[in-house]
From TrEMBL:
Domain (Fido) ranges: 172-325
Phylogenetic placement of the source organism: Bacteria, Pseudomonadati, Bacteroidota, Flavobacteriia, Flavobacteriales
Name by which UniProt lists this protein: Fic family protein
Classification via Pfam families: Fic (PF02661), HTH_DeoR (PF08220)
Keywords assigned: Transcription, Transcription regulation
Source organism, top-level taxon: Bacteria
InterPro entries given in the database record: DeoR_HTH (IPR001034), Fido (IPR003812), Fido-like_dom_sf (IPR036597), Fido_containing (IPR040198), WH_DNA-bd_sf (IPR036390)
UniProt keyword annotation of Thylakoid present: no
Amino acid sequence: MIESPPRFKYDEKVYTLFTQLRDNGELKEINDAYLYWDKIKYKAKIASPQEYWSAIKTARAINAQIITFGKTEFQFVITDYIQQLLHYCDLNIGSNLGSNVGIAETDKTKFMISSIMEEAISSSQMEGANTTRKKAKEMIQKELKPKSKSEQMIMNNFVTMKHIVQHKSDDLTPEKLLYIHNLISHNTLDNKQEEGIFRENDDIYVVNYSNSEVVHTPPNHKEIEGLINELCDFFNNDQKVFIHPIIKGIIIHFMIGWIHPFSDGNGRTARALFYWYMLKKGYWLTEYLAISTIIKDTKNQYEKAFLYTEIDQNDVTYFITYHLKTMEKAFISLKEYIGRKQKEVVQAAKFIKIPNVNDRQAQILKILNEDPDRVFGSKEIENRFNVSNFTARMDLNNLESLGFLEKIQVNKIKHNFIKSKNFNKILKSYKL
């Protein structure tokens, strides 16, 4: 369990220390990183750790903005560092299509589907889904039926993200939230009757499984209806005091975790709601950001951000700072991913020189050239390139007629395609 901070006290000595830390720049450095007591206590050199903490808390209290859900007050501070990250996200995640990441209009859907797959896989793996990324992608691309709870979790997340993208302009209602949870938890809960309904008891705790310690006790189940109505109002309407849309999205994410309205699946639902709100507010690039991939890799920091917030008088700034850093990392990761994919397109360009081969077919040939054991079906081609079943079958049949593919029968109706025995010989004949 995280160590609780000492009681805050305010006196003339603390105020003098506060002004000293403000003037020498130390206060800005600590608040930009938004350090918690467990780090701050080691930085105290000119006063006792308790006085140092009180001086920091004084600065935070002066600049805090208060919001209320139910009977509970939450606060957050917009630090210089948070303002910098908000500006960065406004420029890059809400900018015009392709201006900063180089996504061509023709590649938009392909990148979006790939990113949604990554988000679905990582968000599910954080909640215990145990399968490889390659196997999960294959299941989604080929529309295979999930064979385990882990695979079902990933498929549910993928379906949910696609649903959100299609309904991104909608307002949030309790009924729509329940529908999201129903999609995300389908066939994955111990009790199927708990899919798409708010919890009806208080037999639920957030536990640190390494030592079985309870780290969060959610509000009473009788408060859920009122809290969710307030959260929907927060989601749909502007507040009296302006709150930046990204900050609001992060608070929505946090509040689902804090309220814990469901028996299970709260984390996946919270992250889905964040995506929904960001898209609703025009941050189009969120569709392409696999934020949960970054969260999964920094899960310990993610969990600590929740704990710091609750232990330190519901100061959501810890969670906001962590989340914005994660968005920045996800955007950088997206740019690197697009760079790799663009390089792959360039590498596939030589295959386009083959007569009667289009750009999709050229990419299929590139994949087969690098992965000789690959098996293609029309469903995978549909999903990979976002084309109709007819177009997918035409692409595969054309490559078969050119001698690059061989057809293998799966059953009386279905067949797939594999690399032909003459693939290398035919490719060599074109002298690419």
